[in-house]
């Protein structure tokens, strides 16, 4: 399905690299089917060529012209300028895939100015190791075939959940931003480990395997998250002592609020940029 298709990344930052790494490592497409372009960082393009064997082109018009699938991977605030720059070279047979937080497909369709197939996605940086949790939603002119192609692309770098576009902001706050919440918790574990006298190496193995174990357990159990943490807590034991502090400080409420705020920000991004149309 993706054979003979050229995939152009317009924007070559952290998210583009995570997806490129996953696609190349899992051989979903040949490296030479991928072209990356960006605003100005030639060093980054050189690095991507060497690291992943993909093609790059600092001429954004040429890079986009060649793409059957164009992945929009710039920051949301740059989307208007980025699309206006290359609009003249786009055509209705191309598929545009956005990874941008908040930006509605309708806004991208308007910027392109033709009935372009646009699919909005929200992956996360775990794409780099083939473990993204990606949500995808169809724009007005995208076809089922387009959805199949994007499903195939992102299935190669993790799971794909198809949702209606209005749910993408929720997916963004939850899973797009999600890795950051876990890394923040992990940083807390590192600080506590150091305080307690563990070496970095000792702490690293203990923490990483704890996180991996939680993920694997979640994938293989029907127990609820509450049942799973209660299973760890012995009466008057160590976990209870730890959880007491988390509960006293309303940590769960803080985390719920954090995710809700991220979801609100995704909605806000969409509103802000859609209001500054053309
Ligand atoms: N970093 C993450 O965890 C995730 C990011 N995203 C989305 O991915 C997008 C990119 O984020 P990052 O990779 O973190 O940003 P980044 O700052 O690492 O990369 C942005 C890239 O866009 C390029 N760019 C800027 N202006 C441009 C223009 N006018 N034309 C072409 N390219 C241009 C830059 O040169 C750079 O290569 C954002 O819209 C973000 O919402 C989505 C899911 C997760
Ligand atoms: O922080 C952001 O806006 C992007 C979108 C999801 C993860 N990172």
UniProtKB/TrEMBL annotation:
Annotated function: Catalyzes the reduction of 1-pyrroline-5-carboxylate (PCA) to L-proline.
Known catalytic reactions: L-proline + NADP(+) = (S)-1-pyrroline-5-carboxylate + NADPH + 2 H(+); L-proline + NAD(+) = (S)-1-pyrroline-5-carboxylate + NADH + 2 H(+)
Pfam families from the UniProt entry: F420_oxidored, P5CR_dimer
Keyword field: Amino-acid biosynthesis, Cytoplasm, NADP, Oxidoreductase, Proline biosynthesis
Record domain Pyrroline-5-carboxylate reductase catalytic N-terminal: where: 6-102
Compartment(s): Cytoplasm
InterPro entries xrefs: 6-PGluconate_DH-like_C_sf, NAD(P)-bd_dom_sf, P5C_Rdtase_cat_N, P5CR_dimer, Pyrroline-COOH_reductase
Signal peptide: none
The protein's name: Pyrroline-5-carboxylate reductase
Enzyme Commission no: 1.5.1.2
GO function term, MF aspect, one: pyrroline-5-carboxylate reductase activity
Pathway info: Amino-acid biosynthesis; L-proline biosynthesis; L-proline from L-glutamate 5-semialdehyde: step 1/1
Residue ranges constituting the Pyrroline-5-carboxylate reductase dimerisation domain according to the UniProt record: 165-269
Record family assignment: Belongs to the pyrroline-5-carboxylate reductase family.
Primary localization class, coarse: cytoplasm
Encoding gene, per UniProt annotation: proC
